[in-house]
Amino acid sequence: MTGTPTERPERTARVYAPDFLTELFRNPLDPGYADAAERRREAPPASWRQWSARSVSLVVLLVLGFLFAVAYRQTVAEAPGRTQAREGLVQQIKQRESETDDLSERADALRAEVARLRAAALGGSEAARLRNLEAGTGLGRVRGDGVVVRLADAPPDEDAVPDADVGPSKVIYTDLQGVANDLWAAGAEAIAINGQRLTATSTIRQAGQAILVDFRPVTGPYEVSAIGPEEMRERYERGRSASTMRKVAEDTGLSFGIRDAEDLTLPAAPEPRLRYAQPPASPSPTPSGRSVSPGASGSGTSPTPSGGSR
């Protein structure tokens, strides 16, 4: 067989491109980080300025640590003094409360003695009339059947988020005001809040976190006791205060309940300090320059006290 031999085709090498995981295990460090490390090794040593900056930072850290240590030692040293001062104030408060309770008991005993002497001096009919007036005005102790409205703060819940539309989950002074006013409207003849008798001049206010009834603090749970007719409870439950407190109790977990009570005893309220209008000590000048005496007629004010109280 003649002819020139045929040339074999050249073999081309097959290139296998590595997959991503293989390349990751072979070269775990990014090339950029490797270049930066190489440049750092080739860089000249740190200059004296860099060493100075590091020294200043170290000195500042040491000074701050020293100041914190001194402040801590002073705080620890003053702690016993503050504790003693606090304990002293607590003891004074307890002592004043004990003295106030003793004076209140003594005042009640003196008031009862005055009532006995007055009844003996007035006689039967006048003494009975006076007792009825005292019971109606709150200055006399009364007994009878009625209802007790009990309100208490909701159990503390740290995870609960307060709702501005619902209000706080604790009893506030306006709650007690609403209960007392609706009980009066339902026919109550006598009302007391935690043993504090209400009168025509009584006030229910709030000072900080405390509720004051006639400027005396009361704490929860709060019991509003009322003496009145048999239908008083039914009338009160139809009122606005009862429906509002039921809604608040449902939304916030606040405790609200009404129960009948037999043979309630409500204490007498302390005698109020009434202040009366008084005529001026010296005559007041008129626009015309003439002075008008307190008892003169005309445009001057009347000297007679109004008899009203503030």
UniProtKB/TrEMBL annotation:
InterPro entries linked: DUF881
Ranges in a coiled coil: 93-120
Keyword Transmembrane helix among record annotations: yes
Biased composition (Low complexity): 287-310
The UniProt record lists the keyword Transmembrane helix: yes
Region annotation Disordered: where it falls in the sequence: 259-310
Transmembrane region(s): 51-72
Keywords recorded for this protein, A-Z: Coiled coil, Membrane, Transmembrane, Transmembrane helix
PANTHER family cross-referenced by the UniProt entry: UPF0749 PROTEIN RV1823, UPF0749 PROTEIN RV1825
Family: Belongs to the UPF0749 family.
Listed name of the protein: DUF881 domain-containing protein
Organism: Micromonospora thermarum
